[in-house]
Amino acid sequence: MKKNFLLANELAQASGVSTDTLRHYERKGVLEAPRRARNGYREYPLQAVNRVRLVRRALAVGFTLDELAKFLKERDRGGAPCREVRALAAEKLSDIETRLSEMATVRDELRSTLKDWDSRLTKTVTGERAALLDALADSKTFTSRKSARLSEKWRQRKPEKETKK
Questions:
Q1: Distance between CA atoms of 43 and 54, rounded to whole angstroms?
Q2: What is the dihedral of CA 7, 32, 50, 86, to 10 degrees?
Q3: What is the residue-averaged pLDDT of the chain?
Q4: Across 11-136, where does the E strand assignment appear?
Q5: Is the pLDDT of residue 90 over 50?
């Protein structure tokens, strides 16, 4: 006898998430609420595996659950949000490219700082202060105000978190 439905733990295992994540996806609207068996267990249609995999992949490339819920609801109603999805993905790519550029600037500044600090340390007797942190205020060591702002922006970024697995 072929099964037409999966229990929550079966769907979770098949799609690589926890049952808590499935319930979170339901609350956020990216996964339809399942039917209930007589015993109260959740029963998901087989295609729910693909839906969860789609959500996981979309999250991995930068979409949020709220964005996905909007698009998936429109799609489930027969709409075609393809152009909106594509435009948002392009915007996300642009943001990533900006962040990568910012990170490269901070990386280069840190390399320069480490080179300066290595030089200072070779001239400092063991046990004496080399004033490495004080050197950060020195314009020769930390030359770019722009990179200081970028570094601050980079440290403050907090990616959207997904629920626990």
A1: 19
A2: -160
A3: 88
A4: 35-36, 42-45
A5: yes
Which residue carries 């789609």 as its tokens? Answer: 54
Q: Is the dihedral of CA 35, 38, 40, 44 positive or negative?
A: negative
CA 20 – CA 12 distance, rounded (Å):
9
Cα dist. 32→5, 43, 96, 138, 144 in Å? Answer: 13, 11, 31, 58, 51
**Does 22 score more than 60 pLDDT?**
yes
- The residue whose two tokens read 């907090």 is 158
Dihedral sign for Cα 139, 144, 147, 152, please.
positive
| Cα gap 94→4, rounded to integer Å | 42
Amino acid at 29: G
**pTM of the entire structure?**
0.72
